[in-house]
Amino acid sequence: MADDQYTDDAAEPAPRHGPDGRSAEAEDRPGAGRKGDGPRGAERGADGEDESADPEAAERDRERERAAGRFKEHTRDPLAEEQSDDPAGPTDLAAAARARRSTRTLFESGRDVHSFDRSYIGSAHIGDIHLRMDARQSGAATRTGPVPDEELRALRRIHVEPQGYSRLRDALRARRLLVLGAAPGTGRTSTALSLLDEVTASAGPGPGHAAGPRVLRVDPDGGVRGLVALAASSDAAPGDDGGPDLPSTGYLLELALARPGAVPPDAMDLDGLAAALDAHGSFAVIVVPLGSAANPLLAGRYGMLCPPAPTRELLTTRLRERLEDHVAAGGPSGADDAAARVEALLGRAESLVDRRDVRDAVGLGDLRPAEAELLASLLAGHLLDEVSSEELLAGCRSLAADQAQEWFTGVDRTLATTPEADDPTTRANAAALFHPVAFRIALAVLGGAPHSAVAAAAHLLTWELSVQCDPENAPARPLFCDDPVSDLALSRAELTDGRGEVAGAEVDARLIWYRGSALPSAVLAEVWDRHFPARTPVVRWLRLLADDPRPHIWMRAAVAAGELCVRDFDHGYAELVRPLAEASGPRRRIFAATTLDQAAGHPSHARAVRTLVADWSRSGTKPLRWTAAMTLGYGSAAATTDDALDALARIGVRDDGEQLAVASFNVVRLLALPDSATVLRRMADWTHHKRAAHQDLGLVTTVRLALSEVDEVLTDGPGSPLADLGDWPLPLALAVTRPELVGPMADLMWTALNTARSRDVAVDSLEVLLRSAVRKDGTEWTRPGLAALLPALATEEHDRRRLDWLLRRMMNDPENPLPDAQARALWWLAVTPGDRTDEEDRHG
């Protein structure tokens, strides 16, 4: 590229001619190859002959122009159809692909979805251990009565103090009354009993009196006023010194505030109770579940939050108890020997807990007391050869399943049995009743999305559940009842600082996840397998999410829908896949395709999905063929890459290439998978096919390859070699990571550049590649990929003349001129020293 040759008007170089003396494009067909094997072709007539003077030649020129117009139409974006009311462009698809990759990890924790089938074990005797693997709560109400001393002694032995325990104890001693808020199952009752045991033991009985029951459970039906009456009915009499003359008593009251119609106690009730307790030297702990109803209580002078006990200490304490009991039961031995045996077993147990398969089977970020108890029993049984490896892993998997069952079983039973079910107030409470379960389902589907998006989706599902429960009446939609802290605690969720995506740009966001990889699958399995009436509102809700314009929402919902289809493919196909696959808009069809691909990822359903997609590609309606093409692009909907390419070719060449755009797009998606060499070979076969429709498929796919970025087509996970090159053009990323593909890609691009109908768009796509060498801020970008690809693309003089012409055109672009230095750098990337002419060497 010589300095004195730069002009304002760049002329395209003259083409090479075919061996018959005519341009290979006289008939507008790709050639057979270059350098004897590759493609041949040129852009204009041979020997400078003016074919426009010949009427037949003029007609051929007009036909070539029409063919070029049709070809350009085939290269349009298949995901942004103008007639659709929900277009999905490349930016959306790239964001959706990233969301899909992150979401799939939520359902790939080393287990198949069917591992949550609860039929394998409900309860079992393993040695001397009775494992009760059923999280459902007993329906029997608590009656007022003393807590046995044996239970208090056992509690002292195994209770693990949560963080801030001393503050709770000091507050109870100072005020006589403590309202303790925590999520169910976090050890709140054990903590309350431990507090009452301590403060009553330290207070001691009055002089001259025999010690009575120190800690009593109180029937919750009486509420706080019933407890006041109970404390006041004591025959205690103050001593002469004003102090209590009877044993100090501790009362435990657990209030259920989530029931429709439940009224929390007010401040005057609590003050009256505190006064009665102080008058008789007693103490009380009122345990309340977290939630909007309990917030006023916890914000008052008596309220405090009870954090969960640390998981590792909890598990170690339970394990030590089991192992000490086993060693003691083994017969008399020295204290030192027994302690050494226990410590040795504890060390083995901790190694077992850290084993990958055990961690994946548990799938919980932290353990609650009952879960730690069960896991300790399983680990101890395994160490003592009483529990097999299969039983250990099965029992570990039951933990998340039990939690999900506890969350959903009988949620609306109180609503159905309330005599005032037709009362408007009762209907208004339905939304508050369904919101926690809706939030858990939304979190299972949208885990990793911004908290605001999950909360909004949860409210949408709350509406659907409420309508399903009472279709005759529109449910109330509370506007200011959200309690994010309670939602997190009650649903075992956590917020993390991360990055979200809005219109292709990353922004700071607060992301929400389950604290445990097993919970998303467990929640979906519980809802789908055990609560059939809930399927209808959940399906309606998923269809609404399919219409959400945000890729991180509809793509996550599509992946979750695939997991649901695996659990009941007949229902999922009829209610989700088929209706969305036949929809008018591309986003809904991509949703259906993603759902099918997720199901195909399970060996149990791969064959069914492949049969279905193959049938759609052969004889389906136009929307079904479009959906089949998008499904094939994921790489799992066909047994081999060749089978997927055969199906895509059937779709692309049918009906005069009506769906050539979507077929070629999904061929390019397959190029991002490991078997890309097979894809390039088939593309070359198509370009040399005797039928023009197949030639167009190869040419259009080649142009689309040059225009596609990695993030738009990448379906593999973080382990893909392309994962770190997300914003690179795909051919340049492949040239860097797979050097053996450079030759086949260069041959395909050369063919497109030297075929009349594809020439213009091919040249434009080459310009896109060239402009990606350096970012707008001047930093390096894809130069290594261009350094690998350009020399293979400019091996002959004609190729270099075309590159020279294109670079000059880019330099003279009035809107975005290419700097001279960048143009020279690109030129020397393409032209190796051995290929340079004397004139080029002289001018640099």
Write the topology of this structure:
Layout lengths: L54 H20 L15 H15 L18 E4 L2 E4 L12 E2 L2 H10 L6 H11 L1 E6 L5 H16 L11 E4 L4 H10 L17 E5 L12 H13 L3 E7 L5 H5 L3 E3 L5 H19 L5 H19 L2 H7 L6 H15 L5 H20 L4 H5 L6 H23 L4 H19 L14 H7 L2 E10 L2 E10 L4 H12 L4 H12 L4 H17 L1 H13 L4 H15 L2 H17 L2 H11 L8 H13 L6 H12 L4 H12 L4 H16 L2 H4 L16 H8 L4 H12 L2 H16 L11 H11 L3 H15 L8 H11 L7 H6 L1
Parallel strand pairs: 4-7, 4-8, 5-6, 6-7
Antiparallel strand pairs: 1-2, 3-5, 9-10
Helix pairs in contact: 1-32, 2-20, 4-5, 6-7, 9-10, 9-12, 11-13, 12-13, 13-18, 15-16, 15-18, 16-19, 18-20, 20-21, 20-22, 21-22, 22-23, 22-24, 23-24, 24-25, 24-26, 25-26, 26-27, 26-28, 27-28, 27-31, 28-31, 28-32, 30-33, 31-33, 34-35
Can you walk me through this structure?
This protein is α/β, with parallel strands linked by helices and 844 residues long. Among the domains are: 1-83 and 723-844, no CATH class; 145-159 and 161-203 and 214-229 and 248-305, Rossmann fold (3-Layer(aba) Sandwich), CATH 3.40.50; 311-385, no CATH class. It has a 6-stranded mixed sheet, sandwiched between helices. A two-stranded antiparallel sheet has the order 1-2. Helix 1 (55-74) packs across helix 32 (756-771), helix 22 packs across helix 23 and helix 25 packs antiparallel against helix 26 (660-671). The longest helix is centred in the middle third of the chain and has 23 residues, at 424-446.
